[in-house]
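REQUEST ID: PR-0412
SUBMITTED BY: lab tech R.K.
PRIORITY: routine
TASK: structure prediction, single protein chain
INPUT:
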Amino acid sequence: MSSKRKDSSAHSPATNRVVYSEFGNPNTDAFERPVQELPPNQQNLRVQATRKGKGGKTVTVISGFQAKPETLADLLKKLKAQCGTGGTLKDNEMEIQGDHTQKLVELLTQMGYKAKKSGGK
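STATUS: complete
OUTPUT:
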């Protein structure tokens, strides 16, 4: 005779089981700050090539966005396609693989953004 239980719910790990919360549910949208989305001609963007913290690989960082993450994701997709490389979105900054500063400044100004090259060279 086996004394093992067949009921797996008794030993399953707790998923999002809050025992006590003084200030309500911490996962609510009330704690998120609203993002004020400015039109492209009012955004001042900085385009800079960097290698810091990237394992020696050069990436082009575009910062200064004041837009929703959905808008940034669409813009990033267009820019990656124009440059023919990969990239990512981190902390409201776009990182595009390789040194494409001049090309990205031209593309962003054509789209109506105020973009300027930042950093050395």
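NOTES: The chain has a mean pLDDT of 82.
REVIEWED BY: pending
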